[in-house]
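Q:
My hope is that you can spare some time for a protein that puzzles me. I hope you can help me see how the letters and the tokens relate. Thank you; the sequence and its tokens follow:
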Amino acid sequence: MSIHEIFQQFFTDIQNTSWLEFIAVFAGILSVWLSRSENIWVYPTGLINTVIYIYLSFKSALLGEASVNFYYTVVSIYGWILWAKKDQQLQHVLQISGSSGKEGLRQIAFFGFFYLAVFFALSYLKKDFAPQAIPWADAFASATAYTGMWLMAKKKIESWYWWIATNFASIPLYFVKHYVFTSVYYLVLLIMAIFGLMEWRRRAKKYVKDPGQKLPAF
């Protein structure tokens, strides 16, 4: 595809963007912005985004994207509960932290399981139910998103690495499926995820009680 064709598709698709997609995109950007500062409103704003994208994904037979946003919705409720918990001094129980080596291996296994599950499911469904699916790309974007969302609920710094991978993969993925505004949205999220990673690393330092505890390298 030439540069001219890319721009032509961009302007054509942006004109066909629905008001629901606009709302979902802005709610998602606001949610990521709030997550940088550990603001619990990350979850209610995020739920607006995910519920709309479930509808839009089913409407366009994008089953991989629909499954991701359904998962986001469920884990958002779980994360909302975790982030809201306070101790007797009314301090939030959950704090930003890094993962141990063993936790890191579990995260990779978690990613691998969901990658294979989504890949084989979409490969099977592609012919009759999900013609727009790109199994290997959808599976990567989905599995990294599943992992990032789970770790975000637990306030793990590594969640941002997974979000960076998700956003990077989603930019071309949504573009070729004619969700151009969503593609631009993921470009914005990619930039915000890099700054979110830096902010959470900075915040984590004040929570470290063990001098020997290490934060993940940038």
